[in-house]
Amino acid sequence: MKKFIILIPVYNDWKSLGKLLNEINISIQSMKEIEFRCLIINDASTESALEIQVPSNIHSIELINMKKNRGHTRCNAFGIRNVANNTNCNHLIIMDGDGEDRPEEIKELVERALNNPNISIVAKRVKRSEGVLFRALYQIHKVITYVFTGKNMNFGHYSCLTINDVKTLSSKSSLWGNFSGSVKLHIKKLKSINSIRGVRYYGPSKMSLLKLLIHSFSIIAVFKKVVFLRSVFLILISSYFVQKINLLVITFQVSLVLFNLLIYVVSLRENEEDLLNSGKNEKNRTNYTH
């Protein structure tokens, strides 16, 4: 029997979590000979958790409470390390707990994973639900990321990783700073499914323009060495092939230098020691079964 763990970080959004678990239960009900378990990481929520009920098609739920709030990305990093070190499974599905990662797409993720048991699957965003301005800025983010890293970053956390890739990622310092960038850097072979960004079950989206900016820099920071080399190349090109150095060229070159300094500062978030010691932030854990 194949075993899948679904990793879900939560901060206060317990009502959404309850609905998500029920939606997952519906999505997986036709999948036989597969054991699904959920690992919920409570990122030091300030609101008390609702009583957790284990849906009929989910084998068990483990809730791990953290002492201090570390944020979405680092919750997932801790969860990945926990699965790599302590759990016997074949695949790890990572998804948000608010409905923006649509549970109805789990079936396609699992089917693709079963057909490609040694290859991790990512949910490629083909449509987003945010407003026009956000979608436009998101496209700019993708273009800038591609120009400076050579990588087409078209997925987020929603994915289905093989246990071998989970173990590979679990010790990489970049995982502490950004998940999708780490996947692109350290996992050489990936397959994908098309995914539509869902709408939050309750309340507005938490992805603000500022968070999008930080997210973009965090991805690029994973590839800081490549970014530096490409920036040097652009500076040399602008110096040798522009007949006359003018204010525009100087501004462009200075901007590249400042951009690299900013990327370096953001890359300091990638702390291997903090990643390896992330288990010290665990407060307690509870297992729920039928």
Describe the 3D structure.
This protein is α/β, with parallel strands linked by helices. The protein has one domain: Spore Coat Polysaccharide Biosynthesis Protein SpsA, Chain A. It is 44% helix and 21% strand. The chain is built from 10 helices and 8 strands. The chain has helices spanning 14-27, 72-86, 106-115, 132-149, 163-169, 179-186, 209-222, 224-240, 247-267, 272-276; strands spanning 2-10, 34-42, 60-66, 91-94, 120-127, 155-162, 190-196, 282-289. It has an 8-stranded mixed β-sheet with strand order 7-5-6-4-1-2-3-8, with helices on both faces. α1 (14-27) links the parallel β1 and β2 (34-42). The longest helix is centred in the last third of the chain and has 21 residues, at 247-267. The protein is elongated, with a radius of gyration of 20 Å.
Short description:
The chain is α/β, with parallel strands linked by helices and 290 residues long. It has 10 helices and 8 strands. It has an 8-stranded mixed sheet, with helices on both faces.
List the helices and strands and how they pair.
Blueprint: E1 2-10, H1 14-27, E2 34-42, E3 60-66, H2 72-86, E4 91-94, H3 106-115, E5 120-127, H4 132-149, E6 155-162, H5 163-169, H6 179-186, E7 190-196, H7 209-222, H8 224-240, H9 247-267, H10 272-276, E8 282-289
Parallel strand pairs: 1-2, 1-4, 2-3, 5-7
Antiparallel strand pairs: 3-8, 4-6, 5-6
Helix pairs in contact: 2-5, 4-7, 6-7, 7-9, 8-9
